[in-house]
Amino acid sequence: MKYKDEYSRISNNIINENNKVNNNKPKNNKPRNSKSKNNKINYNKINKRTLGEEYEKTAGEYIKGLGYEIIEYNYRCHYGEIDIIAMDKCDLVFIEVKFRHSGKFGTPFEAVNRQKQNTIMKTATYYMLENDIPENTYIRFDIVGIEDDNIVLIKNAFGGI
Asked: Which residue has the higher pLDDT, 20 or 118?
């Protein structure tokens, strides 16, 4: 009997879709947002790219406060992406921003593994060639790690080109 009921329900939905009638509308038509009742962000319901851009802007504001001058956000080429490109005094700095809302998957800094570092370095090399930046320019690779409300900057986090 249960099988027939399920079959009837599915066939009724198909008929309703074909007739452009939908009797299965949600009863609560309030727009959903990404925060639950206790105002914590539900990270499963947020577009990860949008969330990433939000934290990159947060990191950008943080490093501006430290005296960096932002040149570009989200530089992309066929090698990869660099979250922030900035100047810190005379140094051209390529910055990777990583966010973690819990320690379940490790720290933000652990996420920048050797493979990610190589991708960033190749992308930085391409950026320098594309923008005619002299080879003798001092460059640095920094990481901004964000864990909830805590922001940490590691200058010269990994090797150079």
From this structure: 118
Q: List, as one string, the DSSP characters of 78-105.
A: TTEEEEEEEEETTEEEEEEEEEESSGGG
Beta-carbon contacts of residue 67 (< 8 Å; ≥ 6 apart): 88, 89
Q: CB-hemisphere CA count at 13 Å for 28?
A: 3
| Residue 158, phi-psi category: left (phi > 0), alpha (psi -120 to 50), beta (remainder) | beta
pTM above 0.70, yes or no: no
Three-state secondary structure call for residue 107: coil
φ, ψ of residue 108 in degrees (nearest 5): -60, -35
106 contact partners, CB below 8 Å, separation of at least 6: 100
Q: Higher pLDDT residue, 30 or 126?
A: 126
